[in-house]
Amino acid sequence: MPGAAFQLTERDLEDFATGAWILGTGGGGDPYFSLLEAKQHLAAGRTVTVVDPLSLPDDALVACVGQMGAPLAKQEKLCDGDVIASTIPMMEKHLGRKFDAVMLWEVGGNNGFQAILSGLILGLPVVDCDAMGRAFPQADMTTFAICDLPAYPWTMVDIRRNSLIFTEAENWTWMEKMTRRVCTVFGASAATCKAPRTGEEVKRGSCLHTLSWALSIGRTVRAARAAHADPIAAVVAAEGGLVLFRGKVTDVMRRATDGWLRGRVTIEGLDGDQGESMAIDFQNEFSVAWRGDKPAATVPDLICLLDSASGEAIGTETVRYGQRVTVIALPAPAILTTPKGLQHVGPRAFGFDLDFHSVFPARSA
What Rg do the C-alpha atoms of the chain give, in angstroms? Predict the structure, then answer.
């Protein structure tokens, strides 16, 4: 049975920010500024209601919104809620039909807030689901692409209100190529409304109840801090995760290129990992963690870099020398680890000559 709808409170927004930042696996952008904006909307009397995707009529029309670009660029070019919300009426005008609800493109990081901000501004309910179950860097790395749902139409707006509509694309790969090129011209940051989804498509083609998942993780962290307990241990226990490494960041190499933030972070081991090292490659999000020359974890398992003291997530655009960090892994949604899912989001999709072997043995391909 579908769960009851509920309104997000200020505390919910804070917990969601914490949980979404962890699920971002280094990407999706720091949610801090969007959290502040969402709080302002609540203070002004606006509300946002979260609805269970299973309650959607099959013919409901759902907008799917998110920011596109490199996390570093998105920090420099703040994209407020009005910009992301503007992509929705632009799509409605193209379709000749109003949307019934809005959903998350990816639950990870700041991108998780884009549907919430749009809901607050436009008065639309937010559906408790997303198209990744984490964060990924490319448009063709989604459950919608895995399920072979249409990739178009697609609207894009930048902070200067330059805009365009992609009315058609041969497939998700072409949509990624075209939108990435435009995003790069926009300065590696753009607001987007992706291909509209019906209620039936949302129910069969998305990761369900992921907004609630992020809320739950945030609440776990909050409770652990209040009890003066280890928030990382609490998250690992609650989510069936694993601690992969503890150490200090000794090197960060990153560059913004082709609309992404690419690079590698190197960590020198501390405590039980003294004398060892770990390197983690990233393309917006962390993709492969190496212990020595062997992969310790790969996408689509979630590789999360957390502050060892606070349990706060650390993004690929903010990680820096000297930080004491803990690397954990969380299990990916099941759809991502299917053979079709791995074609889109496995290590080979990121250019690594590796097969996926989950750190959670029962889930290995």
Answer: 19
